[in-house]
Amino acid sequence: MDGALSRMYTIFITGTAGSGKSTLAGAFSDWLRSQEQTTLLVNLDPAALTLPYEPDIDVREMVDYERIMTTRRLGPNAALIATLREVARHVEELAEEVNSHDVDFVIVDTPGQLELFAYRREGRIFTRYVGDGRKIMLFLLDPMFCAVTRNFVASMFLASSIYLTFQLPMIQVLNKIDAVPKKYIDRIERWSESLESLVVDIENKSKKVLMHLSREIAQAVYDIVSSIPIVPVSSITMEGFTELHAMLTRIVSEGEMELR
Ligand SMILES: Nc1nc2c(ncn2[C@@H]2O[C@H](COP(=O)(O)OP(=O)(O)OP(=O)(O)O)[C@@H](O)[C@H]2O)c(=O)[nH]1
Ligand SMILES: [Mg+2]
């Protein structure tokens, strides 16, 4: 596939369990369609029981997670690993199916257990083969969690490790903004714009050992993470989707990220 000639964007949606990946996949696709854009919704989560959208391509049609779990006597996570490995074996088939559609946006919903997707070979196999053209990673943040200094630092650490793992242009999506007070969003944006402001809050709000640790981690990863934009959205009200779309096109047209 010749990415350079393709108009297509491929968006991989990642985030911790329950961060709202599937809801965002469906809602952003609806929004794009309302803007006269064509989309293809791909479900890469073999263990999803129900989805808040109708996938156009679904790995559950390629593999049977429940059967793998029972026949191989595996626990839920080991079964998910085995199932994803099975899907990866057929990645060319999957990629061919996805890439045969001429759409503006391919939206890929990834499995709930982030670490199984992000820290195993299979995740990178999917991001490499599936979809065409310009690829981008969305990393979902939960504002309820991130509004606490040490959690914000933990989330920065996770975001930077996802960035290093996939080496794709990335946007941090601060999701579910309809569900938290506006001051949480303002605080998170302030921290992401100024290390100094984050460090002041870490120093004021944490106990000694935790304070040192949080500050060290924040200082170590801040440069990486602050280069990844944060866009606040709600998948329920669709607030922020215009900005998310603008950021997607901007970040991709800015070209290769520095790490490449
Ligand atoms: N208020 C609010 N709730 C949301 C939003 N996005 C998702 N949710 C809720 O968050 C819960 C989890 O959403 P999912 O989309 O299933 O999250 P997920 O990351 O796909 O979950 P897993 O695949 O199981 O890891 C659901 O109850 C959603 O309705 C949002 O923008 N606002
Ligand atoms: Mg999901």
| Strand and helix order | EHEEHHHEHHEHHEHHHEH
- Radius of gyration equals 19 Å
Distance between the termini: 20 Å
Kindly provide the name of the CATH class of the largest domain: Alpha Beta
What features would you describe in this structure?
This protein has 260 residues and is of the alpha/beta class. The chain folds into 2 domains: 16-133, 3-Layer(aba) Sandwich (Rossmann fold); 142-229, no CATH class. The chain contains 12 helices and 7 strands. A 7-stranded parallel sheet has the order 3-2-4-1-5-6-7, sandwiched between helices. Helix 2 crosses helix 3. It is globular. Mean pLDDT is 92; it is low at 1-5 and 256-260. Bound molecules: guanosine-5'-triphosphate (GTP) and magnesium ion (MG).
SSE layout and pairing:
Elements: E1 9-15, H1 21-34, E2 39-43, E3 57-58, H2 65-71, H3 76-89, H4 91-99, E4 105-109, H5 114-118, H6 121-129, E5 134-141, H7 143-146, H8 149-166, E6 170-174, H9 182-193, H10 195-205, H11 208-226, E7 230-232, H12 241-253
Parallel strand pairs: 1-4, 1-5, 2-3, 2-4, 5-6, 6-7
Helix pairs in contact: 2-3, 8-11, 9-10, 10-11
The structure holds guanosine-5'-triphosphate and magnesium ion.
Concise structural overview:
By secondary structure, the chain is an alpha/beta fold. The protein is built from 12 helices and 7 strands.
Keywords:
single chain, 260 residues, alpha/beta, Rossmann fold, 2 domains, 7-stranded parallel β-sheet, 52% helix, globular, disordered N terminus, disordered C terminus, binds guanosine-5'-triphosphate, binds magnesium ion
